[in-house]
Design brief:
By secondary structure, this protein is of the alpha/beta class. The chain has a single domain, classed as Metallo-beta-lactamase, Chain A (4-Layer Sandwich), CATH 3.60.15.10. The protein has nine helices and 14 strands. The strands form three sheets. A six-stranded mixed sheet has the order 1-4-5-7-8-9, with helices on one face. Strand 12 and strand 13 form a beta hairpin. The longest helix has 18 residues. The two termini are 21 Å apart. 45% of the residues are buried. The mean pLDDT is 95.
């Protein structure tokens, strides 16, 4: 098996949702939690890879105007935390990002897509078409205004497991259920292996209890994906980073600290 390594990774803090746990997992409590919406910048010998793009700069200006009134008191975000400014703060240019991998196409992940016309954008088959025309009761969490500027960008739709560079350093996993093309990523670093779960699971305790989320498009697929992540943790010794979980975020820490 190929034993390539990414050099290092940064977790880029983004918007913060202030919501009850019940909004993140079926059967959750009414406890209010502050939920990060991070992106991840990965330095590979062949160039920079970005996993997710966070929220649109307009969310920092007026979240209700861009996302809708229901989000007015639910989201904290500032312009310095948009993905472009965070990449620049680490000393890179946006054009240094050669590949953008989307965990899925919900609006808290697609806001920075328009910034990368030069990059190759990777997603799993079925995600793009669903994002443009989701089920009626899901349309408030897919934002067409984030997607339309990218119609002529360099999209690549993949199927199943995909080793990005053929060296085992970055492997994309199809983990459907939250959305049809939900994608997790295995990142092999010099000192540890991390699975970026994306939104395949939303809270650390939901990973153990196999609890889905109310807006999952297919709860049965979601459970199967959660079980796959658990097996990678328990059998292969992978560290699963539940992106939205505040305790995972507190343990691993945000940029400018690099994770190796």
């Amino acid at each position: 098996m190929a034993e390539g390594k990414a050099r290092r990774m940064w977790a880029l803090p983004g918007a913060v949702f202030v919501v009850p746990r019940s909004a993140l997992m079926v059967g959750g409590s009414d406890e209010i939690v502050e939920v990060p919406v991070p992106s991840f910048l990965i330095e590979h010998p062949r160039g920079l890879v970005l996993y997710d793009t966070g929220s649109h700069p307009k969310v920092a200006e007026d979240v209700a105007a861009y996302w809708g009134e229901m989000f007015r008191n639910m989201v904290r975000f500032s312009r310095d935390l948009t993905v472009d400014n965070q990449i620049k703060a680490l000393g890179y240019k946006l054009t240094d990002v050669k590949w953008v991998v989307m965990s899925h196409m919900h609006m808290d992940h697609t806001g920075g897509l328009f910034m990368f016309p030069h990059a190759k954008l990777l997603t799993m088959k079925g995600e793009l078409s669903y994002a443009y025309w989701p089920a009626p009761d899901r349309r408030n969490i897919f934002l067409i205004d984030d997607l339309l500027p990218t119609r002529n960008y360099q999209w690549m739709e993949l199927e199943g497991e995909f080793d990005m560079f053929g060296d085992g350093s970055l492997t994309l996993l199809h983990t459907p259920g939250h959305t049809p093309g939900s994608t997790s990523m295995v990142v092999r670093l010099p000192h540890q292996n991390i699975v970026l779960a994306g939104d395949a699971v939303h809270m650390r305790d939901a990973l153990d209890s196999e609890h889905t989320m109310s807006v999952d498009t297919d709860p049965q697929q979601a459970v199967a994906s959660i079980r796959r992540l658990k097996a990678m943790r328990d059998l292969q010794g992978m560290r699963v980073w539940v992106s939205h979980d505040p305790s995972d975020w507190a343990e691993m820490g945000p940029a400018p600290r690099a994770i190796e």
